[in-house]
Amino acid sequence: MAGYLLKNCAAVIVNEGKGPTVQRNVDILTNGRAVQAIGEDLGQSELPVGTIAQDAAGWFVYPGLVNTHHHFFQCFVRNRADLDWTKLSVIEWLDRIYPVFSRLNEDCFYHASLTAMAELIKHGCTTAFDHQYCFPRHAGKRLIDRQFEAAERLGMRFHAGRGGNTLPKSKGSTIPDQMLETTDEFIGDCARLIDSYHDASPFSMRQVVVAPCQPVNCYRETFVQSVALARDRGVQMHTHVGEGESPVMAARHGMRTVDYLAELGFAGPDAFYAHCWELTHDELRKMAASGTGVSHCPEPVYLVGAEVTDIPAMAAFGLRVGLGCDGAASNDNSNLMHCLHSAYMLQCLAASTRLHPVPPPVDFLGYATTGGAALLGRSDIGRLAPGMAADLFAIDTRRMDYVGTRHDPLSLMAKVGIGMPTDLTMINGRIVWQKGEFAGLDEARLFAEAEAALSTVEF
């Protein structure tokens, strides 16, 4: 693989393990999959054979963003007023939306994944975790296999969360029968996917996470066996927590979700939960003590109408925090850069109701980079420094949009927001998006294929 020399970058966000700093008017040299050097006049010395030089004047270069919670398949139910959930509880809304999800076929899952990943890449995301918990019986079991196929087509670094639901509606879940699996089916397919795709080596492009959908929609044994499999195979665990279900769990099991999962062992440095907006400070402290992480998804807050997630408390208690887009059913875009801005602005909105101060804007960049990498158990991505994966994106700031903002690249995304696609996105040392085009792909064709797949489903 060729390396690249990005020459005379206006600013590079560098992090050698002690926090982000800004280096001005420097070059970035990549060699294969890794960053080789960051500094001045790197082109003056002998470069590796095949290095391609690019003028990066005016560019702000950031580490690639890491998305830690999504539901790609939901891209096919975007912008639908008939599925608006603003007047429903989360549980009521799930009862309404799951029958729609159950109609999707295998091609829908593949093209929806392409759609979500393409939008993520355009907006600086280089690693994506997807929580794929929807397995309609007619669609078969190779849905995540097709997601890995889509990720390879685009050049995306992909962590697949193999989700599933095992509790029937007759016992209190929200899941239609045609989307149910047995615990043995779920665990068996998790094991198959780990054996087939999971790569724990440095710069891995494919990993698998054991991710039962949510405790309220699964049998206890599903989570017990998930813990056993994940710990045996050395993979991460993930589920939904604290998005309205805790009172249901308390009525059903005599304890709220956080304590329930801790009792089952589904907690610790190898586990992270999505959402957590309804959790008490005591529950957040317990999670911090166990090392359990949180994927904060800010934009669903707009639609749910519930309280704003208490990120200041999480930061004060030392919780590990990453950012996620969430699925398009509760966030109609797949733009993690936009979520970063929303996350900060929502905390500012709620600041007067908090016991702890809003973290500074730079911390929100950290949640979307190093924080996300840590949730996924990765030490090779999430920051720019020699030896790290060459995952980055660049914004040409020589535009009217950035007048008066260029003095502080660290706060730019959180405070100002970036309202356009990147000028370049590089993943694992390969440029996958530049000058409005995907490398080696025809976006018009991708669009037409996805629209055709969507048209085969009646909603």
Automatic annotation (TrEMBL):
It comes from the Bacteria. It holds the Pfam family Amidohydro_1. Residues 60-432 form the Amidohydrolase-related domain. SUPFAM superfamilies: Composite domain of metallo-dependent hydrolases, Metallo-dependent hydrolases. Keywords: Hydrolase, Plasmid. GO terms for molecular function: hydrolase activity, acting on carbon-nitrogen (but not peptide) bonds. Its EC number is 3.5.99.3. Belongs to the metallo-dependent hydrolases superfamily. ATZ/TRZ family. This is Hydroxydechloroatrazine ethylaminohydrolase. The gene is atzB.
